[in-house]
Amino acid sequence: MKGNFIDNLPKVYGIYTGGFLAFIIIMSIGEQMGMTSKAIGICFVAFTVAIYAIIGYLSRTAQADAYYVAGRQVPTVFNGMATAADWMSGASFVAMAGGIYFKGYGYMALLVGWTGGYVLVASLLAPYLRKFGCYTVPDFIGTRYGGNLSRFMAVVVLTVASFTYVTAQINATGTIASVALDIPFQYAVYVGLVSILLCSMLGGMRGVTWTQVAQYIVLIIAYLLPVFWISNKMGAGFFPHFMLADEVSRIAELEAQFGFVKNSAENLKEVPKGLAGITKAHSAVNATPWAFISLALAMMMGTASLPHVMMRYFTTPSVKAARKSVGWSLFFIFLLYSSAPMLATLSKLSLIDPTLPTGIIGKSISEVQAIDWYQNWNSANLMFVSDFNGNGTLELNEFFMGGKAVVLATPEIAGLPYVISGLVAAGGMAAAMSTADGLILAIANAISHDVYYKIIDPKAETAKRLVVARVLLVVIGFAGATIAAMEIQGILGSVIWAFDFAMSGLFFPLVLGVWWKRANREGAIAGMALGLISGAGYLVWVRNGGSGFLGITQLTFGIFGSAVSLVAMVVVSLMTSAPNAATQKMVDEVRIPSGKSILGKQH
Amino acid sequence: MSKQEQHWEKSRGLLFMTLAIWFVFSIGIFLFGAEMNEVTGPFGYPLTYWFTCQGSLGAFVILIFWFANRQEKIDEEFGFSERGDD
After folding, report:
1. In a domain, A529, yes or no
2. Pairwise CB contact (< 8 Å): B46 & A248
3. How far is CA B3 from CA A123, A260, A318, B70, in A?
4. Domain residues for A110?
5. Cβ–Cβ below 8 Å for B60 and A127
6. pTM of this prediction?
7. Which residue in B33, B58, B85 is closest to A292 by CB distance?
8. Is the residue at A364 inside a domain?
């Protein structure tokens, strides 16, 4: 191919997408010819992971700016795709539609929060941090406020938030690898880890960028294809996003007809752990305004404080491109997020509507227990029925499902070929891997650049710095995998905590660093330290039976943490002396897009 | 007032406008979620439900591109835009 790699990107990824579609077609021909479902699952996961590994190898580099910020030459649209893959984790892909299915409106605060946060990223932070020219988020804090302590505090907050997040992602890659490759979870976690490291070890940010674009393409095809297919097959509408109003009102009608019968605690004991029934209205408002808004707000401020997202905007060629790139990121995220409620609607209606051939409510219990897909998912511990009232018929309150089943099982319930289930496994793997890569890289880069190079050994040569960075990458990956293998908490809960930790410690120190010239080092250190400590303290208190206040729960503790952070930062800044003239001039420089970046190209 | 101060004043004005629109779609409408859900929204979905599935999300996408274009205009007006690449 003529010309350099960047100019050829549309062509390269065009061919890649065509190749992936061809692979799906080959697999479906294979299915017709009698390939087993297990072989198809293995092919999908192995084939896609091998491609990412090849991209990771081709992106290898020995230069610091390529390793840390992909040489700052990623075009806006491609950076948007990479950010979308970076952002949408295993939780978004596998668990989100399930959350909407079970909890309805109250859960959809997450959809609003995880998209609205990008407005804050675009307007408050990304362009200014890009102008700054930093390699990592603590690099900005350390240079803007000065001093090793502020830099170190930023690394601490970043590590706490990102590490909470990454164990959940490695857990998700392990879950999918263990199902698709049919190996025990304890080993599958390490298979997942090796796949993740293959993408990032050699090329750092450059490798991660180009694998994330490839992963986005896989995950979006894997999410949208089944949604459109199911909708058409059910006759619900050619374009589900615009055509499901009848289905939504039909669900409301059925809910009114069946009623939400409350099960006794004794009956619920029978139900396997992690499964839930439909207990909340699908489209009605079922949460108080504050419950909805506080969750959305926590997720929005968390979005603007999570370093693995912010550092994606350090890779664009210009400040202008950074702003546009945030828009593209959100557009690509929107494609998946706006489809999740549609999938939840289709999935729920196909199960509960007695007039549909797939509907199981109202059928006899023994009939349901004889269905093939019920037996499969029941043995995978994701589905369960029990005749609580003893009338022999399945009622709405007698049917239980795991949150993951909405994405994983709906294609099978709707009667789609197995090749779609293989595709969904590859998509889930891509989503979890891309996020894990971004997070591990964010932690390893912060420790190698900010702690090792800037604090411990400022004279280190590039080659040595990159060796340290790679060693840290492996160490952090293994630490994450080891904790993931212990299976301490669920995927979604720990993801939400990561947002709360990040906003508690970093939101105001970052924002005020650009928007308030008077903010100084002492204030920033107080803001980060007290914010993180009070947020974490609140979480521990509520987890141990504390009652909480103002309706702030363990999912929204960041609201308390960031409020403490803001007050501490303003009060301490005003009590101590204003930043010196050089710092004030630096802030002025950051505020205009033209001219040199604050930190040099190589630093 | 120097050119730089004027530029910053305009940028800050744009920020407040952006945040005000953001506030409406992320917080404002959900203060009245229950009441608004009685109304039929676009494509026949209940209105609040539609906002949580598509409306607010789409509004954020448009808002960011609008903000980016406006900020670019401000930068050009004061001669602070970057040359070259996009």
Report:
1. yes
2. yes
3. 21, 64, 22, 18
4. 9-255+274-282+292-301+309-347+416-453+463-590
5. no
6. 0.92
7. B33
8. no
